[in-house]
Write a structure and sequence with these properties.
By secondary structure, the protein is α/β, with parallel strands linked by helices. It is 35% helix and 19% strand. A 5-stranded parallel β-sheet has the order 2-1-3-4-5, with helices on both faces. Strand 4 (128-135), helix 6 and strand 5 (160-167) form a beta-alpha-beta unit. Helix 2 (30-42) runs parallel beside helix 7 (181-190). The protein is globular. The two termini are 18 Å apart.
Length: 193
């Protein structure tokens, strides 16, 4: 890895820090397989951290706004979100990887996203956002509300759209294995600038 980092630096490639937020609770499911393909490509040139929403304890935002009056923007809730803030703070890019159960990101991932209501997010150096989403439904309309949310976040925070991959019709664990979206995700990760 060190040789690869040195080679990349000599070739003018700058290593980026990428955080992948995985919203699926299903281990080895289609969301994770799609995220893994992206990560495999991204790790060729960059440092990648994966956060599994199902493996952390993050409560939903309670809208108290205490984080706005606290000098260090600490949340009154004492859970794993403090560690997630620390990981996101230095990320150059964030990837949202989620299953679509009911026209939105998973509930586990939504808790993390809602807790970004905290003004600590203004100290993040993130410049680019990616979206990876899978759904059992074959009607692509199931992704519409997530795309609106994603584009709104890009606009509001002046982030660059790194890319979006949505995969309908993958209901059972492993249905995505023969899908061309895996190669597309790999290439998306590999070609991050």
């Amino acid at each position: 890895l060190r040789k690869k980092i040195i080679r990349d630096q000599l070739e003018g490639n700058v290593m980026k820090k990428i955080v992948v937020l995985i919203g699926s609770a299903r281990k080895g499911g289609n969301t994770e397989l799609l995220a893994n393909a992206f990560v495999k490509g991204a790790q060729e040139h960059h440092e990648v951290t994966m956060i599994f929403a199902a493996n952390v304890k993050v409560n939903g935002c309670i809208g108290c706004n205490a984080c706005y009056s606290d000098e260090k923007h600490r949340c009154v809730q004492k859970d794993d979100m403090e560690q997630i803030y620390a990981q996101l703070k230095d990320a150059d890019a964030i990837v949202i990887a989620t299953p679509v159960y009911f026209y939105n990101v998973s509930s586990q991932l939504k808790c993390i996203i809602d807790r970004l209501h905290n003004p600590i997010r203004d100290k993040f150096k993130v410049k680019k956002l990616f979206l990876l989403a899978v759904a059992a439904d074959t009607d692509t309309i199931v992704f519409d509300s997530i795309k609106v949310m994603y584009r709104s976040v890009l606009h509001y925070f002046h982030l660059k759209d790194g890319g979006m991959i949505t995969v309908p019709g993958v209901k059972n664990r492993g249905d995505i294995i023969e899908n061309k979206a895996l190669e597309k995700a790999y290439q998306l990760g590999k070609n991050i600038e």
